[in-house]
Amino acid sequence: MRTPWEAAVFVYRGDQMLILRRTGENYWHVVAGVVEHGEQFAEAAARELREESGLDVGDRLIDLERPLTYALTPEFRERYGFPPDQQEVTTYNFAAEAPPGWEPVLNEEHDTYRWCDFDEAMATLYWPSAREIARVLATRPR
């Protein structure tokens, strides 16, 4: 069974942010995925980052300390395999700075990516929670 936690990683380089398009779903998001049973939130974020983009930041993952909770609709619960009694999911948000010249190597979850400024990222990201965290990251000193 799927856990009620997710980890999201907002990858940036200078004033640019990486966004990824979900394969077959035609929406833009950031690196994100389920926190597995027994896994720490930062461990899940680092794992998802390696799996979805090939980026290994070691211990340089930044905890944005902004968990966000969203309610599950019945359709979303069924589509993504959540238990029938689960009502919400909490996403723990992290940031990672990409090294100069690095480009992601995508896994099957995404079919393309792009670097964009924070305003474009906020306008393009599908999920409101991702837009909110991008806004937070845009105002952080880098």
Helix/strand order: EEEEHEEHEEHH
Helix content: 25-40%
- What class, by secondary structure content? alpha+beta
User: Measured on Cα atoms, how large is the radius of gyration?
Assistant: 14 Å
What is the overall silhouette?
globular
> Which residues form runs of ≥5 with pLDDT under 50?
none
| Beta-strand content estimate | 25-35%
Amino- and carboxy-terminal Cα gap: 38 Å
Q: Total domains, how many? A: 1
CATH fold field value = Nucleoside Triphosphate Pyrophosphohydrolase
**Number of H/I helices:** 4
**CATH C-level class:** Alpha Beta
Based on the structure given, which CATH architecture is correct?
Answer: Alpha-Beta Complex
CATH superfamily membership: Nucleoside Triphosphate Pyrophosphohydrolase
Mean pLDDT: 95
Count the strands?
A: 8
Task: Characterize the main sheet.
Answer: 8 strands, mixed
